[in-house]
């Protein structure tokens, strides 16, 4: 039987009641507090990913490996290149053991010998007996990297002591750019490319078209980072010891830098707080005295590698650690063991945060306790959350953040203090001080992505306070950690 009019009206009213929200559902929630404005310049997404790697690897391998030299002459016979046991997967295992997520291969050094079968020169692996002339070190390298979850990078030397076009500005720049096309279109994604400014004092005069090269690179690989003295994405730190300055800004003025020019090392080492360009530093250093393998050299001791780590990663840099494969095509067992020892030591030191379980408070919190920028954010292990104070607070009293350790942890000593800025919104801290239970234990200038303070002796205490005594705008801290480095007390440092 059909429903009557009254029943139909009742059903319609019920449907409206279900579909139309009650007045309570329309009640507005408390608006979120927006983040503070950036302090320019700020990093690109690719630069941020690079910074968070912290440790990456370099592999210097080529003709010099077989001639016991660092800078070849360019006249070497390709028949010398015969790495009978080459295994790029073993190289990647060494990189992973050191904690690296990116590995860079020297595809061509100053001697001009190419580790891939370039169509633009006969001076390559194609002319060697290795793999019967059908080998390609670059292809094996990137394949092994991807199989091990490591990103790949390429070094292509501008200085070429072999090619007869070197010295002819147009012809050589066209040759170099053609090889960039080969490397950046034939091997998949490349995360970093290295442009070296090194050149011998008596080298043939040559003008490199860096700007054309840089724009070509960005056209071919949109998310790649370009390294050179001048960036534009990553800069040289100014030395080959792996040490950044005690003050180290990610910002510089690129117009003040000429690639390969002497006298700019201090500027590169420290950066420029007024620099308009975000070009953070990379610290390149070899685990051996030389960049290429030499039979009579051995790896640096663990103590020295840890010192390098503290003075690179611990000073707002990425550490680029070189491990040169030998003439058989393998990284020496002793070098692999040292890399594994280094990676394990870093994991031991920073694998336990003695600030865990602490309560955090600060001079102020942007938007109040529920504003999303609370002091407790420095303890959550996330790079994308951070403590932000109110701007007015710092003008009156100065900015500080304090960790109050739980009673059961207060007696556990620590000798490393870790401080990290939220650099996605710019680098801000100019000077800071660290106190434990009111006593000063450390101080410094810049922080950046990460600042590590190794204390002269281990301390225990309940309250750890960090004062930001000078800054470019309100400071934004993403992490504060406390760690114990047993290698110092064991005399390994």
UniProtKB/TrEMBL annotation:
Record-linked SMART domains: Alpha_L_fucos (SM00812)
Glycoside hydrolase family 29 N-terminal domain: residues covered: 79-344
A single GO cellular-component term on record: lysosome
GO MF terms held by the record: alpha-L-fucosidase activity
GO biological process, one term: glycoside catabolic process
Signal peptide location: 1-25
UniProt-annotated location(s): Secreted, Extracellular space, Apoplast
Keyword terms: Apoplast, Glycoprotein, Glycosidase, Hydrolase, Secreted, Signal
Alphabetized Pfam families for the sequence: Alpha_L_fucos
Domain of life: Eukaryota
Major subcellular site: secreted
Gene3D superfamilies found in the cross-reference section: Galactose-binding domain-like, Glycosidases
Enzyme Commission no: 3.2.1.51
Family per record: Belongs to the glycosyl hydrolase 29 family.
The name this protein goes by in its record: alpha-L-fucosidase
UniProt source species: Setaria viridis
């Amino acid at each position: 039987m059909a429903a009557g009019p009254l029943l139909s009206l009742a059903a319609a009213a019920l449907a409206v009641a279900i579909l139309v929200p009650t007045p309570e559902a329309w009640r507005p929630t408390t608006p979120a507090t927006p983040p503070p404005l950036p302090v320019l310049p700020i990093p690109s997404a690719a630069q941020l990913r690079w910074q968070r790697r912290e440790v990456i690897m370099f592999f210097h391998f080529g003709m010099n490996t077989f001639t016991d030299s660092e800078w070849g002459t360019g006249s070497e016979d390709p028949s010398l290149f015969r790495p009978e046991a080459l295994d790029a997967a073993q190289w990647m295992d060494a990189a992973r053991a050191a904690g690296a997520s990116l590995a860079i291969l020297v595809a061509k050094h100053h001697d001009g010998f190419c580790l891939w079968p370039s169509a633009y020169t006969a001076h390559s692996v194609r002319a060697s007996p290795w793999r019967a002339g059908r080998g390609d070190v670059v292809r094996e390298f990137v394949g092994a990297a991807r199989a091990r979850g490591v990103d790949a990078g390429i070094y292509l030397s501008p200085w070429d002591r072999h090619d007869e076009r070197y010295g002819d500005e147009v012809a050589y720049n066209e040759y170099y750019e053609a090889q960039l096309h080969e490397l950046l279109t034939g091997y998949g994604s490349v995360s970093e490319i290295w442009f070296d400014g090194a050149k011998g004092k008596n080298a043939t005069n040559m003008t490199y078209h860096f700007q054309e090269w840089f724009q070509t690179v960005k056209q071919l690989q949109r998310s790649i980072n370009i390294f050179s003295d001048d960036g534009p994405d990553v800069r040289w730190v100014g030395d080959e010891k792996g040490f950044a300055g005690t003050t180290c800004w990610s910002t510089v003025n690129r117009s003040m830098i000429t690639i390969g020019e002497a006298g700019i090392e201090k500027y590169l080492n420290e950066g420029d707080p007024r620099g308009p360009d975000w070009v953070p530093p990379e610290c390149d250093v070899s685990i051996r005295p030389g960049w290429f393998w030499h039979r009579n050299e051995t790896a640096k001791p663990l103590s020295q590698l840890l010192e390098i780590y503290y003075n690179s990663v611990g000073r707002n840099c990425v550490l680029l650690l070189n491990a040169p494969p030998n003439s058989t095509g393998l990284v020496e067992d002793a070098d692999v063991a040292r890399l594994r020892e280094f990676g394990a030591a870093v994991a031991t030191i920073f694998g336990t945060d003695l600030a865990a379980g602490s309560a955090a408070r600060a001079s102020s919190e942007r938007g109040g306790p529920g504003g999303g920028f609370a002091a407790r954010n420095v303890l959550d292990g996330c790079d994308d959350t951070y403590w932000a104070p109110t701007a007015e607070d710092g003008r009156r009293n100065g900015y500080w953040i304090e960790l109050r350790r739980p009673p059961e942890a207060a007696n556990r000593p620590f000798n490393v203090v870790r401080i990290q800025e939220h650099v996605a919104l710019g680098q801000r801290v100019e000077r800071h001080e660290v106190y434990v239970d009111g006593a000063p234990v450390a101080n410094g200038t810049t922080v950046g992505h990460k600042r590590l303070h190794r204390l002269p002796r281990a301390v225990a205490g309940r309250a750890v306070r960090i004062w930001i005594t000078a800054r470019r705008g309100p400071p934004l801290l993403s992490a504060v950690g406390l760690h114990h480095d047993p290698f110092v007390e064991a005399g390994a440092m």
